[in-house]
Amino acid sequence: MTPQEPNHSQRLVPDPEAEREVILSARDVCVAFGKNKVLDHLDLDVYRGEILGFVGGSGTGKSVLMRSILRLIPRQKGVIRILGEDYDKVREAKKIELDMRLGVLFQQGALFSALTVRENIQVPMREYLDLPKPLMDELAELKVAMVGLAPDAADKYPSELSGGMIKRAALARALALDPDLVFLDEPTSGLDPIGAAEFDELIAQLRDTLGLTVYMVTHDLDSLFSVCDRIAVLGQKKVLVEGTIEDMLSFDDPWVQSYFQGKRARRIPGTPRKPDAQQDPGSSPADSRKSEAQ
Ligand SMILES: Nc1ncnc2c1ncn2[C@@H]1O[C@H](COP(=O)(O)OP(=O)(O)OP(=O)(O)O)[C@@H](O)[C@H]1O
Asked: What keywords sit in the KW lines (predicted)?
């Protein structure tokens, strides 16, 4: 070893960056619909145990990326690895195993209206596992409790639930198979400020107790400031910047500045704000909790 080369084996302080496990990686991802190129050579890493907030202006491709990761829409190019495995290259049995490690909460909950909460939670169990009914009932009740719903919610139909209860029931279904990684598509949209804050708290609790990794598409600045460990911003068809809130606040891009330091962000206590960031951009967060409350 030459004197110029660092001797990593003698490092005394562990490098936290080096020890984080990448649970999801996207490399060089391109998605287009006809001539409409939505994602262009996009790269992204999600680390185990983190809550990643994924933001971007309306129509920039946040849902497209999530759906592409979940293979609900095809991509033209790029590699997506889940738990280190390239889904496109693994055998069928491994594909099923990988599918079981992912949970999804779609924006409107997407519960089956003809099924009770219990039956909704049991849908993935029936699809992937072969369990006796009493055990499935027990597991569903456990999930109901885990998301903070009262036991009697298990036998209700989605039409009998409030918006917040629907989100929780949908989260319970997303957790049915004890996934490593859950995707949440705007989980707090449509909730009142108290319900949204409680939902954020629940997500943080589940991350802490289950070691869950959370990929959360959101416009909710309160969630971004209060529960997200890192944030990735989608812009110009790729991830423009990823990092902590502090990284966002110091990132030199007009959209990022306006988003994180605009009128709504400034209302969050403790948010440093630059004097020149007066305006929210045209495609700024549509549903900050305060505006919902007004
Ligand atoms: N199935 C599809 N077919 C054709 N175009 C699509 C399809 N899905 C999405 N798009 C286009 O891809 C672009 C990105 O859409 P996407 O829904 O991912 O935006 P978004 O960032 O999630 O927006 P929002 O924050 O408003 O939900 C839009 O131009 C949209 O019209």
From this structure: ATP-binding, Nucleotide-binding, Transport
